[in-house]
Amino acid sequence: MEIINKPLKVALYAFTVSCILANVSNGQESALATANRNFTEVGKEFSIKDKNLRKWDAPVVVDLDNDGYLDLLINDHGYGVQVCWNNKGKFEKPYDILIGDVHGVSVGDLDGDGNLEIIMARGGGSGGNARNSKLFTVNKKREFIELPEFNVPLEMMRGRTVKFVDLDNDGDLDLLNFAFPDADKKGESENYIYENIGKGELVLKSKLPAIKADGQKTLVTDFNGDAIVDIIMYGNGIVKAFQGLGDLTFKEVTDKIFPFKIDDVTSINEIDFDNDGDFDLFFTRSKDFEIGETFFDKESKTWGFFTKRGAFKFADLEVGDVLNMENFQSQWPNADTYFIGESGYDYKFPAETHSGKNIRLVNSNSLGFPDNYKDKSGFYIGYVGNDKWRIAGSLNAPATGVVHGVVDYPDYKHPKAPSTLLLENKGGKFTDVTEKSKIFLNEFIEGATVADFDNNGFADILMVKRGDLIHPNKSVLYLNSGNASFEPIQDLAIVSNELGAIGMAVETIDYDLDGKIDVVIGNERGKWHLFKNELENAAKNKSVTIEIGNSKSGKATALGAVVELQSCNKKQIQRVGSTGASYSLSFNKFIHFGLDSCDKAIKVKVTWSNGETSEQTINSINNKILIGTKN
User: Fold this and answer.
1) Is 151 exposed, middle or buried (0-12, 13-18, 19+ CB in 10 A)?
2) Does the bond joining 370 to the residue before it have cis omega, within 30 degrees of 0?
3) Are 31 and 541 in contact (CB under 8 A)?
4) Residue 199: which region, alpha, beta or left (left: phi > 0; alpha: psi -120 to 50)?
5) Contact, 596 vs 539, CB < 8 A?
6) Radius of gyration of the chain (CA)
7) Cα torsion 197, 203, 206, 211: sign
8) pTM (2 decimals)?
């Protein structure tokens, strides 16, 4: 076994649950009128490398070392997976766990020993390097120990989705392990379902039907309320719903539960937006950039582009003697292939080329342009006279970049954005209430997360837009007003300022245990950002955070447990681990509920995946409780 050891110099201390309560608000006011509408980006507490890198999915939120503070697993696609240890509200510099092409990540106690296991789906090199997922266990000393293969190793694949989930209601964690289809499989399904047969040993049990291309994005939910896990798959073509039968097999029920066919989906969150005790669904939708799509802002003289898979040649750019390029990115094998001027000499980079590249070229060192720019794969850049520069080439991997100082550029007719969707659960079938709930949004949205950001007892929705490369990317927050409708926060300060980035990943975390839900955003081809919640109502309203342990028998893990809370006249419900992540799954056992101004007894019921339940009443705001047993 290989041990990766990261010393821990801060004292570990016991933590069960924090019941965090703020001052009582004076009356019920409009969320839009009273909210401070302010988040603050955190710098010194979040020391992520200041580099523009490709990302893969939302960060995984989990208390890896069981010290009471939530840590982060972040995935810079093509670089590797890192852990950001949380030292009492301040994150350490990211520490490498696995380097390479990594996709989905999931965390859970697979073998029931109290330590957490991490599974990481490895990419397959566009079909030329099929590999299986890697497993590590991590202990309270913050040591990562690579685990050996199972008796029958996990399938070799172009790995995408991995999610630990109890699929047969026996309390232990099984595995969803889905792949991007390999052409050599000739249409055979690679959506594998593994059963945990004891002590963390996984064996192949069944498969879901084959999905074309990038259709492995997955939401684990329970749409019919039978306490058996259901699966919704999306990402390529029409969204498909599969009802769990309780024995690790599923039947498709798409047309039976959805009011119409749904496509262009980028994320799905389960949300009880109306507090009626079942899980509704919120869909974000977008489209990929088109090959050759360009963006131009005449006022700022900023131009951006996207291209992939083949030859390209953009209209000449009038910028003058000096060409300033920002955040140019194209992954291997084109990461550092830039040919300059008529001779096409190879531009040499002084440092690593994995992150976005800022390049300054002077015309005297870049004169002319080659007759043939398709012989060798890469970017070709040259000064062609009359203050103009030419960018062309031939690439396989997706490529983006920004150029400053462009005088003018032809308009590009961009496609129309699909709308968001909110579907209300009506006895296991869904009704479209998007417009009725006032959350209809015709913008390209890459992802979303659900939480009670203002602590009023109703779940809100934060969305990350697809960036246009040439402007800062401003997220969108809709606060739940409590009457089954939402109000947008217009001047939200959750903004990613780096250019050339594409919004993608978002997750919630109360990183400093102040009872207010904070936000982590990871921009594809951009940076990681941590935003602290300073909404006025979040501080005025009360909240409670409850730690969910294992079931009392010890047979069921907290992951997947359903938590119901009754406070005054509100009933709320959440599932441990549920997020809008497409390929990964968090394990946040600290469940946060807003209470508004309620100061009466709070009733909590937890139902574990094996059917065990526990009910508890919190009579005093000073109580510290653990529901279930400590790991």
Assistant:
1) exposed
2) no
3) no
4) left
5) no
6) 25
7) positive
8) 0.92
Amino acid at 211: I
- Contact in structure between 387 and 372 (CB atoms under 8 Å): no
Q: Is 65 helix (H, G, I), strand (E, B) or coil?
A: coil
Cα–Cα distance for residue pair 326/540, rounded to 1 Å: 43
Among 58, 80, 76, residue whose Cα is nearest residue 526: 76
CA 344, CA 326: separation in Å to the nearest integer?
21
Give the pLDDT of residue 89: 94
pLDDT 10s digits, 137-185:
999 999 999 999 999 999 999 999 999 999 999 999 999 999 999 888 8
User: What is the identity of the amino acid at 351?
Assistant: A
The residues with which 403 forms a beta bridge, in sequence order, are 303, 325
DSSP assignment of 228-239? S-EEEEESSSS-
Parallel/antiparallel/unpaired status of strands 357-362 and 378-385: unpaired
With CA atoms as reference, report the closest residue to 217 among 198, 235, 194, 199. 235
Residue 516 banded pLDDT, cuts 50, 70, 90: very high
Q: Name the CA dihedral angle for 528, 534, 539, 542, rounded to a multiple of 10 degrees.
A: -30
Query: Using one digit for the tens of pLDDT, what is the confidence trace for 271-329?
Result: 999 999 999 999 999 999 999 999 999 999 999 999 999 999 999 999 999 999 999 99
Q: Which residue has the tokens 């040499």?
A: 348
Residues in CB range of 43: below 8 A, 6 or more apart: none
Query: CA-CA distance, 447 to 597, in Å (whole number)?
Result: 31
Measured in degrees and rounded to the nearest 5, phi and psi for residue 20 equal -105, 115
Q: Are 355 and 335 in contact (CB under 8 A)?
A: no
Beta bridge partners of 251: 243
Alpha helices (runs of H) in 522-567, residue ranges in sequence order:
536-540
Cα-based angle 629, 169, 163 (whole degrees, multiple of 5):
85
For residue 629, the tally of other CB atoms under 10 A from its CB is: 13
Residues 85 and 63: their CA atoms lie apart, in Å, by: 9
CA torsion 118-124-129-132 (nearest 10°) is: 30
Q: What are phi and psi of 244, to 5 degrees?
A: -75, 140
Distance CA 481, CA 25 (A): 15
> What are the DSSP calls for 493-524, one per residue?
--EE--TT-EEEEEEEE-TT-SSS-EEEEEEE
- Which structure tokens are listed for 373? 């720019």
- Separation of alpha carbons 81 and 104, rounded Å: 10
The answer to whether the CB of 595 falls within 8 A of the CB of 602 is: yes
- In angstroms, what CA-CA distances link 542 with 122, 289, 515? 42, 43, 8
Give the contacts of 136 (CB within 8 A, at least 6 positions apart). 4, 97, 98, 117, 118, 120, 144, 145, 146, 147
CA torsion sign for 445, 180, 588, 85 is: negative
Cα end-to-end span (Å), the chain: 24
Read off the DSSP letter of residue 125.
G
- The gap from C-alpha 526 to its chain's centroid, in whole angstroms, comes to 14
Q: What phi, psi does 186 have (nearest 5°)?
A: 55, 45
Q: Which pLDDT tens digit goes with each residue over 3-35? A: 444 433 333 233 333 333 333 333 333 444 344
Residues 88-124 pLDDT 10s: 999 999 999 999 999 999 999 999 999 999 999 998 7
